[in-house]
């Protein structure tokens, strides 16, 4: 079932979205050579506590994963791309770090992810990162009333394949609102003009993620951390959006620097 959100409900999700965007911005600024992933995780725990927010990842227990997720942030380095467990690891020069954060505030959820390169970026990594951001922008642009779900998927796919990157379809975007995962599933590959008709009031997390040279994934023994099967580097970009009569709105838009994150 897809629950359409009222404009007032979308505003509440935007409040959460601004917080998520702000914390991801802080992480991007903190992530530097020598910084430990556990320090980033603890920064987010502190911010969530201060804000009175609830983590969507803490105790998340889907069909995969060995036991519930006991962290608030997914931190995935280099060939790891999704659900990376924060662990005792000091970032190194040139590392590619994907950060995924989902929280609820007063019962309304927002979910976003961002990839940064620590220290000196390699050209191949920069190209991959830009492709995920471009694919996300294309998917957002297609999220309009009257279009179909396949238009979003096809737009994401066209950018990725246009850059020569293969696409894995085991994990993709999703509806969200009162919880982190709601209908529909939003594949990162699809046929334009097919699938569910998009309507104003739908709220979706779009999240293209790519590995440079493979569409296959492997899980770590922890059951959580997902890596490219060939060890190639990866990137992930995600926004929570609302489809409105006026077109797509990004609810997890980054605020300008120095903006106050604690006010709605
Ligand atoms: Mg996410």
From TrEMBL:
Catalytic activity, EC: 3.4.11.18
Q: Which residues form the Peptidase M24 domain?
A: 11-245
User: A Gene Ontology MF term for this entry?
Assistant: initiator methionyl aminopeptidase activity
Please share the entry's free-text remark on the cofactor.
Binds 2 divalent metal cations per subunit. Has a high-affinity and a low affinity metal-binding site. The true nature of the physiological cofactor is under debate. The enzyme is active with cobalt, zinc, manganese or divalent iron ions. Most likely, methionine aminopeptidases function as mononuclear Fe(2+)-metalloproteases under physiological conditions, and the catalytically relevant metal-binding site has been assigned to the histidine-containing high-affinity site.
The residues the record assigns to binding a divalent metal cation 1 are 100, 111, 238
Cofactor names: Co(2+); Zn(2+); Mn(2+); Fe(2+)
Q: Which UniProt keywords apply?
A: Aminopeptidase, Hydrolase, Metal-binding, Protease
Is the keyword Hydrolase assigned to this protein?
A: yes
Q: State where a divalent metal cation 2 binds.
A: 111, 174, 207, 238
Name the InterPro entries on file: Creatinase/aminopeptidase-like, Pept_M24, Pept_M24_MAP, Pept_M24A_MAP1
Its domain of life reads Bacteria
Residues engaged in binding substrate: 83, 181
Q: Which Pfam families match?
A: Peptidase_M24
Q: Which reaction does it catalyse?
A: Release of N-terminal amino acids, preferentially methionine, from peptides and arylamides
The task this protein performs is described as:
Removes the N-terminal methionine from nascent proteins. The N-terminal methionine is often cleaved when the second residue in the primary sequence is small and uncharged (Met-Ala-, Cys, Gly, Pro, Ser, Thr, or Val). Requires deformylation of the N(alpha)-formylated initiator methionine before it can be hydrolyzed.
UniProt lists the family membership as follows:
Belongs to the peptidase M24A family. Methionine aminopeptidase type 1 subfamily.
Assembly, per entry:
Monomer.
Tell me the protein's name.
Answer: Methionine aminopeptidase
Organism of this sequence: Pseudonocardia humida
């Amino acid at each position: 079932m897809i629950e359409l959100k009222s404009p007032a409900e979308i505003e509440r999700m935007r409040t959460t979205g601004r917080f998520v965007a702000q914390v991801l911005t802080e992480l991007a600024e903190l992530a530097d050579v020598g910084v430990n992933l556990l320090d980033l995780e603890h920064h987010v725990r502190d911010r969530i506590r201060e804000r009175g927010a609830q983590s969507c990842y803490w105790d998340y227990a889907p069909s995969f994963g060995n036991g519930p997720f006991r962290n608030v942030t997914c931190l995935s380095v280099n060939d790891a791309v999704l659900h990376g467990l924060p662990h005792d690891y000091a970032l190194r020069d040139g590392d590619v770090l994907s950060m995924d954060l989902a929280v609820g505030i007063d019962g309304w959820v927002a979910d976003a992810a961002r990839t940064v390169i620590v220290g000196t970026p390699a050209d191949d990594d920069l190209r991959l990162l830009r492709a995920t951001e471009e694919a996300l922008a294309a998917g957002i642009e297609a999220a309009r009333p009257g279009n179909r779900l396949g238009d979003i998927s096809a737009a994401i796919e066209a950018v990725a394949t246009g850059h020569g990157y293969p696409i894995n379809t085991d994990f993709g975007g999703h509806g969200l609102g009162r919880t982190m995962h709601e209908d529909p599933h939003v594949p990162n590959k699809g046929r334009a003009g097919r699938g569910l008709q998009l309507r104003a009031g739908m709220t979706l997390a779009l999240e293209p993620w790519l590995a440079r040279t493979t569409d296959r994934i492997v899980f770590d023994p922890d059951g959580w951390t997902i890596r490219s099967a060939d060890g190639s580097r990866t990137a992930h970009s995600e926004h929570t959006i609302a489809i409105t009569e006026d077109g797509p709105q990004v609810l997890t838009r980054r605020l300008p620097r120095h903006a106050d994150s604690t006010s709605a």
